[in-house]
Automatic annotation (TrEMBL):
It comes from Petrolisthes manimaculis. This is ISXO2-like transposase domain-containing protein. InterPro entries: IS1016-like_transposase (IPR053164). PANTHER family: DDE_TNP_IS1595 DOMAIN-CONTAINING PROTEIN (PTHR47163), SI:DKEY-17M8.2 (PTHR47163:SF2).
Length: 110
């Protein structure tokens, strides 16, 4: 039962996020970003072998969010999503992934 509830919640949030138009954040607003893999374990044991990578963000001030399924988690793919989904001038908080080091060159604070 718990698995179907989690799946239903993910589908609801993901669908709602896809319908949302516009960018989140803004000048001096904080946007947290990260990527995660949603999937399952084979026979519920061991490492995750199947799933979908999703890149997302949330604005701390407005609670606006975005979620985008991604095939590749490379610099070019994620940077394009950031430009499409986050207002320039936003303060971006992320993990220490090296690809995010270019955000200051793109009009964001990091």
């Amino acid at each position: 039962m718990a698995r179907s509830v989690v799946s239903d919640m993910f589908v609801y949030i993901f669908t709602w996020s896809l319908k949302r138009q516009g960018k989140i954040g803004g000048k001096d607003m904080i946007v947290e970003i990260d990527e995660s893999k949603f999937g399952k374990r084979k026979y519920n044991v061991g490492r995750i072998v199947e799933g979908q990578w999703v890149f997302g963000g949330i604005c701390r001030e407005t609670k606006s969010t975005f979620l985008v399924p991604v095939e590749k988690r490379d610099k070019d793919t994620l940077l394009q999503i950031i430009k499409d989904k986050i207002e320039p001038g936003s303060i971006i908080i992320s993990d220490c992934w090296k690809a995010n080091n270019c955000l200051q060159d793109e009009g964001f604070q990091h």
